[in-house]
Amino acid sequence: MPSLGIIADDLTGATTVGALLARVGVDTVVLFDAGGVGELDGDHEAVIINSDSRALPGPEAYARVHHATQDLVDAGARLFSKRIDTTCRGGIGPEVEGMLSVLGDDYVAVVVPAMPQSRRIVVGGYSLIDSVLLARTPVAVDVRTPVTESNLRRLLAGQCSVAVGQVGIDAVLAGTDCLKAALVEERAAGARAILVDATSLEDVDTIALALVELGWKTVCVDPGPFTERMAIRSGVVPTRVPQERTTRLHCAESDRGTVLVVAGSATGTTNGQMNELRQVPGTEVVEIAIGPLIGEEAAFTAEAERAFDEVTRLMNLPTPPRVVMLGLESTLSGRVVDLAALERGAGLEPGTGPSRIPLRLGEIGRRAAVAIGCSLAGLYLTGGDVMVNTCKALGTRGLGLVDYVIPQADQGVVVGGPWDGIPVVCKGGLTGTPQTAVQCVNRIFDENNRSSCQEEVKENAAVSA
């Protein structure tokens, strides 16, 4: 029975908050849909549902979150969180109201959109991303969910039917007594959602402590740090000392097997990371053309079979590859692909082609995993839609979170399906430095080696017994 129930609007966000909880020893699992809550094995302390609702119209997003919240209530959750994007993309208002509609009038949504460890802070109600106003970052021209408003109170008020209050950084810095008074004042004025500034993890902890002292029934609305602090401060979940894990840039003699990389993000950040990784000895690249992923079934089947045959050939070499990098041509080259022209060539309605790309790339990823077989050391998935579709193609029910390599590059294991227990690292397209992919792959090898050693110890113990 989970004590903490979280709903995230995409898989990247789900793994981000899950990794934060896992780092303080909370047993956390991410599910790809709400229907899996009742089918979970084990007694997980935190359950995160990926509603996959970020780009949905408001009423549809509301409905998905409403139903997912009811599933979490039925499962026994006592603390609730609506995980939001660090850049506030998507329909935050409808999703928060979808959660509140289940929990009742005595709940209040406290919105703390800061993630200081990723240089996301809120001051005076304004969102700053690495010292740049939100609306002046690339998220303002995001293809699916652009954000053109830096003032988060105005942003939320434009999406919510409930009143939105605000508490500034001065009240947070003044300490819990002053902060509690400011929160009470906003709620007395009729606010059902209250935006609170934060510039550091200390600020986030102060907010959590104030709310616990007030005894409010709170919906945490944040990218993860506030939820983690509320879970700990409220005592809803126990904390344990997590295992220490290292981050390295160099290959090790202990690295065994082959890591499969599936890369579908078209950002410059991901392109730079893939270029860095392909320079590491033992990395083999299989480039996937975008045209067949958008086109008719026969073209896709031919491209999928070509990729499978190439991975099979690589695995049959005298020295199999350390890494198989399966990447879209745009991801690997950094060139912009004219998707509209590809749609016209395939006879598709404008805007319908892009959704096929991650779905079909996920299926190619599954076939590549089959070709690698028992040598598969783990998976590195980059790009939110690619992560979801690859995991679903693999037949998994969810991900068990373990840690993060860096914030928002999250480490876990596959839950359910033929690859149950395989290490996986998931990363959004905008996260990290040029070395991040190398670090993530090395972490997978370390985790695979750790798991292999643990299994060997168990086998030896069984023989001795």
UniProtKB/TrEMBL annotation:
<keyword id="KW-0067">ATP-binding</keyword>
<dbReference type="InterPro" id="IPR037051">
    <property type="entry name" value="4-carb_acid_sugar_kinase_N_sf"/>
</dbReference>
<dbReference type="Pfam" id="PF07005">
    <property type="entry name" value="SBD_N"/>
</dbReference>
<keyword id="KW-0547">Nucleotide-binding</keyword>
<dbReference type="GO" id="GO:0005524">
    <property type="term" value="F:ATP binding"/>
</dbReference>
<comment type="similarity">
    <text>Belongs to the four-carbon acid sugar kinase family.</text>
</comment>
<protein>
    <submittedName>
        <fullName>Four-carbon acid sugar kinase family protein</fullName>
    </submittedName>
</protein>
<dbReference type="GO" id="GO:0016301">
    <property type="term" value="F:kinase activity"/>
</dbReference>
<keyword id="KW-0418">Kinase</keyword>
<keyword id="KW-0808">Transferase</keyword>
<dbReference type="InterPro" id="IPR042213">
    <property type="entry name" value="NBD_C_sf"/>
</dbReference>
<keyword id="KW-0119">Carbohydrate metabolism</keyword>
<dbReference type="InterPro" id="IPR010737">
    <property type="entry name" value="4-carb_acid_sugar_kinase_N"/>
</dbReference>
<dbReference type="InterPro" id="IPR031475">
    <property type="entry name" value="NBD_C"/>
</dbReference>
<dbReference type="Pfam" id="PF17042">
    <property type="entry name" value="NBD_C"/>
</dbReference>
<feature type="domain" description="Four-carbon acid sugar kinase nucleotide binding">
    <location>
        <begin position="260"/>
        <end position="436"/>
    </location>
</feature>
<feature type="domain" description="Four-carbon acid sugar kinase N-terminal">
    <location>
        <begin position="4"/>
        <end position="228"/>
    </location>
</feature>
